[in-house]
Amino acid sequence: MSDMKSLDKKVILVTGAGGGIGRSIAIEAARAGAAVVVNDLGATLDGRNESSASAQAVVSEIEKLGGRAVANGDDVSEPEGAKAMVKQATDAFGRLDAVVNNAGILRDCFFHKMTYENFDAVLKVHLYGTFNVSHAAAVVMREQGTGSMIHMTSTSGLVGNFAQANYSSAKLGVAALSKSLALDLQRWNIRSNCIAPFAWSRMTSSIKVDSPEQEERVNRMREMKPEKIAPVALYLASDEAADTTGQIFAVRNNEIFLMSQPRPVRSVHRDEGWDIDSVARHAIPSLKASYIPLDVSADVFSWDPV
């Protein structure tokens, strides 16, 4: 470890940090000088069978590096669980400078086969979990007059994907929530940003392979390591990012993208107003050239990562 550390004296809470992207962020945060609350419910990919062993294993790794960390096994989908993990951060380390809302589950299924339970469960962890942890953290950060919130979104929500109505809804909701947090909390110097990560992890390992094209896509994803996400996340947690808020980044191997956010792309006007016929004959033909294609994420990010 170097003497100059970009996150010295910072305290960071990382949810879903028992493996994959969260684990990498937690370990690299410790390397950069931060004290880390390693949260993980220890659940299986679909959110069942809980155990805190994975969080404790990451804490042990950090301590072997000479870093400071504590394990937390609370549930982000429960408001009281979120409050408990934030309290653990302040009890153990005296403050809370950043949260990384990374915890997630998957229950992929085509929409016409999706149950209410599977829609609800995914929204509860991703969207409600992001709300719960951010809401609890905001109390501490407002008192401090500073803080950073980093949320994991996905191109499944920003662009689209098959068989992920629950996950896509949650992840696009996270992006909208992040913008609201950035607007509402800026007076206390609290920042809020999103990252859409491309990385091979426990979550992406569940992608169904039912064609040569899918197999090729999955093989490309295997090359994208979760460690590649940490530098952007930890930059956003640092003081260097003081003027960055309300943004959406994507990270794919060695590529970093700034993602667009919805804005008008084309308009039509009619002095006398519109009726069904004029909409059909004039408005839609004028607007149709700018329609957004029915793409999925792989169509938009169609080139091999570098």
Automatic annotation (TrEMBL):
Which family does the record claim for this protein?
Belongs to the short-chain dehydrogenases/reductases (SDR) family.
Q: Which Pfam families match?
A: adh_short_C2
Q: Which domain of life is it from?
A: Bacteria
**Matching InterPro entries, A to Z?**
KR_dom, NAD(P)-bd_dom_sf, Peroxisomal_Beta-Oxidation, Sc_DH/Rdtase_CS, SDR_fam
The protein's name in its UniProt record: Putative short-chain type dehydrogenase/reductase
Q: Which SUPFAM superfamilies is this protein grouped with?
A: NAD(P)-binding Rossmann-fold domains
Signal peptide stretch = none
Query: Record keywords: Hydrolase included?
Result: no
Species annotation: Pseudovibrio axinellae
Q: Name one GO molecular function term.
A: oxidoreductase activity
* Enzyme Commission number(s) from the entry: 1.1.1.-
Instruction: Recite the UniProt keywords alphabetically.
Output: Oxidoreductase
Please report the stretch or stretches of sequence annotated as the Ketoreductase domain: 10-206
What sort of enzyme, by top EC class, is this? oxidoreductase
